[in-house]
Amino acid sequence: MDLDEVLQTHSVFVNVSKGQVAKKEDLVSAFGTDNQTEICKQILTKGEVQVSDKERHTQLEQMFRDIATIVADKCVNPETKRPYTVILIERAMKDIHYSVKTNKSTKQQALEVIKQLKEKMKIERAHMRLRFLLPLSEGKKLKEKLKPFIKVIESEDYDQQLEIVCLIDPGCFREIDELIKKETKGKGSLEVLNLKDVEEGDEKLE
């Protein structure tokens, strides 16, 4: 590790804002050495990051915006299928007094926010459009097992295979994929036609 890329100075301070440098005996007592470069390495590997209130506030604001961006990207008004703008989601998050958790990822928190916003406004994750190609022998039986995961069946076609085009909640994708692989022993297939079933234009709150 090149310390000069990480540090502004190799000096160790007792109080950086007052410019008070640590005394030699204090360094030996705390770190067992007065070699400032070695002490810097110890602090970097074992120390805790001290973040100023301003930096923390900036970090929280950025995470808040990132969460709102993920929610806006994943969700629509279920009645119009139109997406909400990031600004509108930010406003809704402020209305429910959502507080950012720095120990959780923005993606995890976005899913929490969606759940909470559902109680206050018309919002749900945009559906994913899939096409299933299933062997006729297992097709009908498998369709019954898939039904709980399907929001809307748009078309069904029985030819050499059972072909179903449908909308699902994206959260169910993995379960559906595993179910088809297991039940058809790899003969069935699943194709993503649209990651998000959305209408053009942004949703506005009246």
TrEMBL record:
Residue span, Ribosome maturation protein SDO1/SBDS N-terminal domain: 2-56
SUPFAM superfamilies, per the entry: FYSH domain, Hypothetical protein AF0491, middle domain
Domain Ribosome maturation protein SDO1/SBDS central: 65-126
Biological-process GO terms, alphabetical: cytosolic ribosome assembly
Domain of life: Eukaryota
Classification via Pfam families: SBDS_C, SBDS_domain_II, SBDS_N
InterPro entries: Ribosome_mat_SBDS_N_sf, Sdo1/SBDS, Sdo1/SBDS-like, SDO1/SBDS_C, SDO1/SBDS_central, Sdo1/SBDS_central_sf, SDO1/SBDS_N
Ribosome maturation protein SDO1/SBDS C-terminal domain location: 128-195
Record family assignment: Belongs to the SDO1/SBDS family.
Protein name as catalogued: Ribosome maturation protein SBDS isoform X2
Provenance organism: Trichechus manatus latirostris (Florida manatee)
Highest classification ranks of the organism: Eukaryota, Metazoa, Chordata, Craniata, Vertebrata
